[in-house]
Each structure stands twice: as C-alpha cells, then as structure tokens.
Amino acid sequence: TLAITSFTVDTSPGVFVAAGNSGNILRSTDNGSSFDNATSPTANTLKGVTFGNNTFVAVGSSGNIVRSMDNGSSFDNVTSPIETDLYRITFGNNTFVAVGQNGNILKSTDNGSSFDNVTLPIPTNLRGVTFGNNTFVAVGDSGYIARSTDNGTTWDNATSPTANSLVDVTFGNNTFVAVGLSGNILRSTDNGSSFDNATSPTGNHLYGVGHGNNIFVAVGSYGNILRSTDNGTTWDNATSPTA
C-alpha cells in the first residue's frame, strides 16, 4: 500500500504530482483522473513536494532531495548538505526552501540544482513551510514559528500563542494560517510577525491546511475536515466521508 505524504500541482499544463513512502512518485496529466508512476531515483520516503519555475522538487528522509525538469516524468537526485529528515518544501521569489529535523533549513536559488544550509535561531524540528507576500514562514514543534523576509537567507522568531506542535502552514488573502496538534489553529495578518489563536471546533490533531477560492480548509485525524470562509478567523466542521 502506497502512503501519500505530499501533493502538488503545476496548474499551467495541469500536472499533478504526489510523493510518498519508499520513494514513490505518482503523476497525473488528466486533471487527477488517473496516475502513473514517475521515475524515482530513491527508495527513501519522500515527505514534501512542490513546484516552481517549471521544476518539481521533493524532499524526504535522510536529507533526500530529488527534482524533475521534464514536467514530473522523471526525477534525479540533488546533492543535499544534510543527512537528517526533511519534512516540507515550498517555492517563492525564484527560491526553493526546505525545512526539517533539528531546525534545518535549506535554500536553493539555482532552480533546485544545489541547496545550502541556513541558520535558524532555535534548533527545533520544523514541520511545515510556506511563502506569501515576499515572506517565508516555517512552523514546528512546541509551537515554534520562524519567518524570513530576505528570501530565506536569515530567519527571526515570530510570536506564537501555543506550545502545541504545529504541523503545516499556508498563505492566502494576506493571511498566514498554521495548524497542529490538539486542533490548534493560528493566524497572522501582520505578515507573519505574530500569530493569534483562531476558534477551532475540534481537539483532534490537524495535519494539513490549504487555501483556495477565498476559503481555508484544514484536515486531520479521524477524517476531520474544517473550513473557514472569514479568512481563518472562525472554523466549522465540513462533512467528511471518512472517520
């Protein structure tokens, strides 16, 4: 059984790419109706994948980084400066930024050909990263949040109202929204400088959050799906077909 850990899309030609356990990479060119295996150079679990500048880049266990420049058909290994797990990767301002264990942050400004280490103020595990409004924001264990306004070169601590671990973060409508354990939902409207608690209808762990069509959607354990139509201020349970 293939476990999918991350998913992204190149909206221009409509290519969907999913990555997961044992280095598996799947690709769809028919708007997600069907998926085929893409050529993967690794058997390590891939935990995050993103798209930018006509390039797919995926990251995973043992510092693995792979990239594709042929629209996701095949992937090649990229030299990584670390051997610890990477959990997520994002793209913005022609820069790929990956985050992972022990506060590791890697950045690439050459379209994913090579990655360099970046210094983080606190060496805590980082679980999620996103980009918006010329700002990178990373979240992690014990409610830790960091942000960079210089294209990922330096990072500062952001104010966090929780000690619960944060697992994912996204951006939309000039708002950053982070989710994590025990149903925690945080939002920032000051470009990631500080975050406040949002009203959450669940105490279940939340593992992912996204934004589209002016709606934030978060997903988590026990099939939980939450949505917000007021820019992340309040959230309601959505009907889920699984539990």
Automatic annotation (TrEMBL):
InterPro entries: DUF6242_C, WD40/YVTN_repeat-like_dom_sf. Pfam families: DUF6242_C. Residues 120-237 form the DUF6242 domain. This is DUF6242 domain-containing protein.
